[in-house]
C-alpha cells in the first residue's frame, strides 16, 4: 500500500486521475489537496472511497509538509493550476500565484521532508504541464518534442513554463526526484464548462450560440483524459528522474472540425435517445433543426496560438505509452457522460 498526494484532485484532470488511480491501485490511499476554486468540485471525487479530500492551498507550505510527514507520503502528483487562457489574459495574477509560487511551495515542502529530514527516502514529485509552453507552430512545422525551446505566448503558458523550470531546477540543484509530462488538449468527463467541448455541448443543449474564435482554423491535438491518466501512470512507473515526456492523443484537428463533430454528435443523440427533446426543448435538435445553426464567429482571442502538435515518440519508446481512445468514440462517450450526469454540471451553470 502506498500513500499518494494529488494536488488539484477535485478538478478536471486531477479528478479523473483520482478515479483512474483508485481503480488501478485499489490498495493505495489517495490524499487530495484542493482549495476548491470555481473549477474544483467535491462531487467529482465523492464516490472514491480511498480518496480523502483536504481543503487547502498549495501555497501553504506548512500544510504540505504536515501532510507529507503525517501521512507518510512518498509520491506527489501535481495537477493544481489555473489553466484557462482567457482568464489569464484578463487576470494574470492568480496564475502567477498558483502556478509559479504554488509549485515552488510544494517543491520546498517535498525537499524539506524527503531530503532534509528523511535523508533522501525514495520519492517522486510528478508535475503535470502543457504543450502550450512551447508556443505556436506553423502549418508545416514538426510537432513539439521534449527538446523544443520554450516560447510561451500567454500569461497562462508563461506561468506553466516557469513552474516547469522550477521543477527541473529542484532536481538539478537539490537532487529531488522529479518527472514532468507536457500534455495536449484534454477532454472527457468532469471538465468545467468553460473549455471548448463541454461549453459547446451544453450551449447546444440550451440553444445558446457556439462562439468560434477567429476563423476556427486553429489546430490542437486532442487527448482523452483517461489516456492522459494512463500516460501519467506510465511515467510514475517507468519515467526517469529529471526527464520530461510529451503525452498526446494523436488527434490533430482544426477547431472547426471539432465543432462540426460536436454538432453532429448532438444531432445524433437527439435522434437516438428518447425523451431528450423533452429534457432540452431549447436545443435546435429538439425541434428537428441542425445544431450547426448555433455556430457564431467572434473576435479572435488576443495572441491566439495557431497550432499545437505533440511528438510522443519518447513516451511510447521509454514508457510504453499508447493512447486507447480515438476522437470520434471519445467525443461520443463524453457527450453521453454529460447527458447522464446533469446533476454534476447543472449547479456549475447556476453558480
TrEMBL record:
Keywords: Lyase, NAD. Residues 5-332 form the NAD(P)-binding domain. The keyword Iron does not apply. It is an enzyme of class 4 (lyase). It comes from the Bacteria. It catalyses: dTDP-alpha-D-glucose = dTDP-4-dehydro-6-deoxy-alpha-D-glucose + H2O. Its cofactor is NAD(+). InterPro entries: dTDP_Gluc_deHydtase, NAD(P)-bd_dom, NAD(P)-bd_dom_sf. GO terms for molecular function: dTDP-glucose 4,6-dehydratase activity. Its EC number is 4.2.1.46. GO terms for biological process: nucleotide-sugar metabolic process. Belongs to the NAD(P)-dependent epimerase/dehydratase family. dTDP-glucose dehydratase subfamily. PANTHER family: DTDP-D-GLUCOSE 4,6-DEHYDRATASE-RELATED. This is dTDP-glucose 4,6-dehydratase. It comes from Alteraurantiacibacter aestuarii.
Amino acid at each position: 500500500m502506498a500513500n499518494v498526494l494529488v494536488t488539484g484532485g477535485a478538478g478536471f484532470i486531477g479528478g479523473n486521475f483520482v478515479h483512474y488511480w483508485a481503480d488501478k491501485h485499489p490498495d493505495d490511499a489517495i490524499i487530495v489537496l484542493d482549495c476548491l476554486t470555481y473549477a474544483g468540485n467535491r462531487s467529482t471525487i465523492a464516490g472514491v472511497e480511498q480518496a480523502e479530500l483536504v481543503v487547502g492551498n498549495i501555497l501553504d507550505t506548512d500544510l504540505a509538509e504536515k501532510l507529507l510527514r503525517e501521512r507518510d507520503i512518498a509520491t506527489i502528483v501535481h495537477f493544481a493550476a489555473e489553466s484557462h487562457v482567457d482568464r489569464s489574459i484578463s487576470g494574470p495574477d492568480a496564475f502567477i500565484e498558483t502556478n509559479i509560487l504554488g509549485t515552488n511551495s510544494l517543491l520546498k515542502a517535498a525537499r524539506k521532508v524527503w531530503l532534509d529530514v528523511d535523508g533522501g527516502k525514495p520519492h517522486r514529485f510528478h508535475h503535470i504541464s502543457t504543450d502550450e509552453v512551447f508556443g505556436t507552430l506553423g502549418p508545416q512545422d514538426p510537432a513539439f518534442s521534449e527538446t523544443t525551446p520554450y516560447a510561451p505566448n500567454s500569461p497562462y503558458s508563461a506561468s506553466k513554463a516557469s513552474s516547469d523550470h522550477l521543477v527541473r531546477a529542484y532536481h538539478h540543484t537539490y537532487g529531488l526526484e522529479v518527472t514532468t509530462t507536457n500534455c495536449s488538449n484534454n477532454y472527457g468527463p468532469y471538465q468545467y464548462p468553460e473549455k471548448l467541448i463541454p461549453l459547446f455541448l451544453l450551449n447546444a443543449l440550451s440553444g445558446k450560440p457556439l462562439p468560434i474564435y477567429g476563423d476556427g482554423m486553429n489546430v490542437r491535438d486532442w487527448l482523452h483524459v483517461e489516456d492522459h491518466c494512463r500516460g501519467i501512470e506510465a511515467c510514475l512507473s517507468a519515467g526517469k528522474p529529471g526527464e520530461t515526456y510529451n503525452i498526446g492523443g494523436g488527434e490533430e484537428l482544426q477547431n472547426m472540425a471539432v465543432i462540426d463533430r460536436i454538432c453532429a454528435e448532438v444531432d445524433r443523440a437527439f435522434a437516438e435517445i428518447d425523451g431528450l427533446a423533452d429534457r432540452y426543448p431549447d436545443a435546435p435538435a429538439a425541434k428537428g433543426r441542425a445544431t450547426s445553426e448555433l455556430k457564431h464567429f467572434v473576435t479572435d482571442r488576443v495572441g491566439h496560438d495557431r497550432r499545437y502538435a505533440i511528438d510522443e515518440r519518447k513516451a511510447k519508446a521509454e514508457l510504453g505509452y499508447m493512447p486507447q481512445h480515438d476522437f470520434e468514440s471519445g467525443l461520443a462517450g463524453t457527450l453521453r457522460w454529460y447527458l447522464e450526469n446533469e446533476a454534476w454540471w447543472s449547479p456549475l451553470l447556476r453558480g
